[in-house]
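Entry 14. Ran structure prediction on the chain below.
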Amino acid sequence: MSSSNLARLLLLGLIWGTSFMLMRIAAPVFGPMLTTFGRAALGALALYLFARYRRVDMAWRKNAKTYFVIGLANTAIPFSLFAWSALYIPSAYMATMNSLAPIFTAVFGFLMLAERLTPLRIAAFILGLFGVAVLVGIGPTTITPQVIGGVLAGIGAAINYGFAATYTRMNASKIPSLATASGSQCAAALALLPFALPGIPHALEFGTLQASLAVIFLGLICTGVAYALFFHLIASEGASKAVTVTFLVPATASVWAWLLLSEPITMGTVIGISIVLIATSMALGLLKLPARAKS
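Output, structure tokens:
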């Protein structure tokens, strides 16, 4: 990877690491759905303006279905699930659940593309879930039904990311990547609007400057700028290198939350995250089992 793209990768890891902390700030004030809509809408605006600047052909009629499905699976549903889980679990937990996405991508590759589900990927799936169990079991947060629900919501978000990645490979390979990012964000914002409207009166009465700034940063930076960086890395370095940002996010999310929200980083946090990242590297083919010696 070139030095400039390595810098972009590190910046992307820092940006996406803040998103979980920002949801922890915004969701309790605005509610999960309005927080998610604000993020998606601002992200859609930033990406659409950038696509217009780059003169990207959106082909709205031709690609409407693809944009809608990707918008739901890659933005509307997982962002909503993470915003809800932000009410109950620490940022490190959410970032760790997010890191399961490549594992579920391998599962959907098997289900939807008939890709071979190797023993290594099966082991990665089992190890990833074990890592989550370790994180929850010995992490800094007391286990309650709400915490378990938040963890399951985060896993649900990762499942959606896995489906979205596979669906994108199947149906959006001929669509410019910036058009896919912009069109899917617009579709997600439209889908979220009816669910966000009931929360507006509460937000107008009880909204705070800190929560408002969190949503603005989530939308413009964590979604708009981050997606532009991510798709640039995919185009210039390939998806396999771009997706390694997955390994940076749990660490950066934990540090940001520790610095700004005083969320503790315990040995249980480190062990749980490490197990999940080992599983993710196995799913991505970056870590392989030793070959059997021939007799």
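Residues 3-283 form one domain. Will compare against last week's run tomorrow.
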